[in-house]
Amino acid sequence: MGWVLWKMLPPPVRIRVPAGAAFIPQSTQPVEAIVADFDRLQEEQLSWVARVRARDARVLGPGAGKAARQSLIHTLASRGGNTALSAPPATVTTSPAG
Q1: Each residue of 26-46: b (16+ CB within 10 Å) or e?
Q2: Of 7, 35, 46, 76, most Cβ neighbours within 10 A?
Q3: Is residue 96 situated within a structural domain?
Q4: Residue 11 forms part of a structural domain
């Protein structure tokens, strides 16, 4: 079937479009600080994924299938959000007034 469509369709239109100027990001931070920040945020994301997977494994069990996962997602969504994915409460620090 794919061969028939390939034979029936005309060749793709070839229009040359000039490329834009090369993108050079402007940053005021040194590269080391940007990479360190990226690494920190990447580790934070990976820890969230690991926590959610561990929670799913405890709630659903090792043999749970797609239907069980979707049922859990639907139940959590109907309660106003997925509490498993919500961020931990932020810690507030106050300094003495002075």
Answers
A1: eeeeeeeeeeeeeeeeeeeee
A2: 76
A3: no
A4: no
In angstroms, the CA 59 to CA 84 distance is 11
Is 23 inside a domain boundary? no
Residue 39 lies in a domain: yes
| Gap between the Cα atoms of 73 and 78, Å rounded | 9
Domain count, the chain: 1
Domain coverage including residue 39: 33-80
Residue 28 DSSP one-character state: S
Encode pLDDT of 64-90 as tens digits. Answer: 667 776 777 777 777 765 444 444 444
Q: What confidence score (pLDDT) does residue 61 get?
A: 63
For tokens 């940053």, the residue is 27
- Say yes or no to pLDDT of 97 above 60: no
Give, in order, the Cα–Cα distances in Å from 81 to each of 4, 23, 40, 46, 58: 49, 39, 27, 21, 19
**What separation in angstroms does the CA of 62 have from each of 6, 68, 96?**
45, 11, 50
